[in-house]
């Protein structure tokens, strides 16, 4: 796709001049001010390069490009001005992270070269981001699949809590939601050091032996150390390391942080993990939330309140018991799916997708599956809901 350029200037004649000069060489849009340009960025992006005048009424170029940095952080920003003083240049670079600073009048060939440099910079930024995202996504997928093969109990718990972690994160308006999602998926990866029987006992609220308890207390740090060496996973690693830290500062690790100084993702994870344990003891969901509220000092009250709101929204699902062949994408397993020999095939809380349906069909033919399967079925949205 051709690089798109956004020109911003309150002088209509200047914008007309840009159109005449560059219409044959650039895919361009224009906006007569900062406010209008922000609307263009939100509705018509992405743009490789943004070229803005400095002196504009209402919102000057520095203010606009600072806002543009939040809306379109990867777009390369260029500032044009007839006031070439050092203070303006410093403000522009510090506040708007400006790529280049050009003075007017600027020769068309100089501006075109600067825009071309900006496009190359944008291509480098996006290529690096895509590489990192693909590498990160692949790493998380491999680790999750290894956990599923080595310790299905731990994988089952990670799958169950992922839904609630993400839902609570949205309620609390977490900025980097991918960190919450990834931390949930990999929070139990350290449990590969525990036997499945010990995890089963733990998830059912049963007493662990001294050795089992010691091993379990180590699992967050095992996982954290594994993830710390993966690029962009430092924050996820910290969330997992602090998953047993209480809001009042007690618990592991032995760190002075408490309250809101504990990573938000870790505070959410602490709540959701204990919620999952209570559910395993046959507590109902609302009752489990009430128990969490009663445990003074252990949890972030805002995270518990957000979880309570999430539980209320789950009324949009209905329970059903279906054959494996009747499962559809979007349903959520309400109970474990097990083979006739008792082996766990898919854990409670897993969202049904095409891969799972094909796997169930294959195992149903070769080993046999215990049916019916308990699921949560999303209710159909009302007509004309706009969703």
CATH architecture of the largest domain: Orthogonal Bundle
Number of strands: 10
Helix content: 40-55%
Major sheet strand order: 2-1-3-4-5
Taken in chain order, the helices and strands follow as EHEHEHEHEHHHHHHHHHEEEEHE
- Portion in strands: 5-15%
Termini Cα gap:
30 Å
Global structural class: alpha/beta
Unreliable residue stretches? 381-387
Largest sheet: 5 strands, parallel
Instruction: From the alpha carbons, calculate the radius of gyration and give it in angstroms.
Output: 27 Å
Q: Overall pLDDT, averaged?
A: 85
CATH superfamily of the largest domain: Hypothetical protein af1432
| Inertia-based shape | elongated
Tell me the number of structural domains.
Answer: 3
The CATH class assignment of the largest domain is Mainly Alpha
SS field, number of helical segments: 14
CATH fold annotation of the largest domain: Hypothetical protein af1432
Describe, in plain words, how this protein is organized in 3D.
It is a single chain. The chain has helices at 12-22, 34-44, 61-71, 86-96, 108-150, 152-171, 177-186, 196-203, 210-227, 234-241, 264-280, 285-294, 301-313, 354-366; strands at 4-8, 27-31, 49-53, 76-81, 100-103, 317-322, 332-333, 337-338, 344-346, 373-378. It is an alpha/beta fold. It folds into three domains: 4-127, Rossmann fold (3-Layer(aba) Sandwich); 151-315, Hypothetical protein af1432 (Orthogonal Bundle), CATH 1.10.3210; 323-387, Molybdopterin biosynthesis moea protein, domain 2 (Alpha-Beta Complex), CATH 3.90.105. The strands form three sheets. A five-stranded parallel sheet has the order 2-1-3-4-5, sandwiched between helices. A three-stranded antiparallel sheet has the order 6-10-7, with no helix packed on it. The longest helix is centred in the middle third of the chain and has 43 residues, at 108-150. The protein is elongated and about 80 Å long. The two termini are 30 Å apart. Mean pLDDT is 85; it is low at 381-387.
């Amino acid at each position: 796709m051709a690089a798109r350029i956004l020109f911003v200037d309150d002088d209509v004649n200047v914008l007309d001049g840009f159109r005449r000069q560059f219409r044959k060489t650039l895919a361009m849009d224009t906006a007569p001010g900062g406010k209008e340009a922000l609307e263009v960025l939100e509705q018509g992006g992405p743009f490789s390069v943004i070229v803005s005048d400095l002196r504009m009424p209402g919102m000057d170029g520095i203010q606009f490009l600072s806002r543009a940095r939040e809306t379109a952080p990867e777009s390369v920003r260029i500032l044009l001005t007839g006031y070439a003083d050092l203070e303006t240049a410093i403000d522009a670079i510090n506040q708007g992270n400006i790529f280049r600073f050009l003075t007017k009048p600027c020769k068309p060939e100089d501006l075109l070269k600067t825009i071309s440099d900006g496009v190359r910079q944008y291509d480098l930024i996006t290529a690096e981001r895509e590489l990192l995202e693909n590498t990160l996504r692949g790493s998380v997928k491999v680790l999750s699949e290894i956990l599923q093969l080595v310790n299905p109990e731990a994988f089952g718990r990670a799958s169950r809590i992922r839904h609630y972690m993400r839902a609570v994160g949205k309620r609390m308006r977490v900025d980097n939601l991918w960190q919450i999602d990834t931390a949930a998926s990999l929070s139990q990866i350290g449990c590969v050091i525990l036997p499945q029987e010990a995890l089963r006992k733990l998830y059912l609220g049963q007493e662990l032996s001294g050795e089992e308890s010691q091993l379990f207390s180590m699992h967050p740090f095992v996982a954290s150390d594994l993830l710390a060496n993966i690029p962009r996973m430092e924050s996820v690693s910290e969330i997992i390391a602090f998953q047993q830290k209480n809001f009042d500062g007690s618990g592991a690790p032995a760190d002075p942080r408490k309250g809101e100084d504990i990573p938000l993702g870790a505070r959410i994870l602490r709540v959701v993990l204990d919620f999952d344990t209570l559910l395993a003891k046959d507590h109902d969901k609302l009752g489990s939330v009430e128990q969490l509220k009663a445990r003074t000092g252990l949890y972030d009250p805002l995270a518990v309140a957000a979880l309570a709101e999430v539980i209320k929204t789950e009324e949009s699902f209905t329970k059903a018991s279906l054959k494996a062949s009747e499962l559809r994408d979007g349903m959520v397993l309400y109970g474990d799916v097990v083979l006739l020999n008792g082996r766990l095939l898919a854990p409670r809380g897993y969202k049904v997708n095409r891969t799972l349906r094909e796997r169930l069909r294959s195992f149903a033919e070769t080993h046999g599956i215990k049916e019916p399967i308990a699921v949560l079925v999303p209710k159909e949205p009302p007509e004309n809901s706009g969703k």
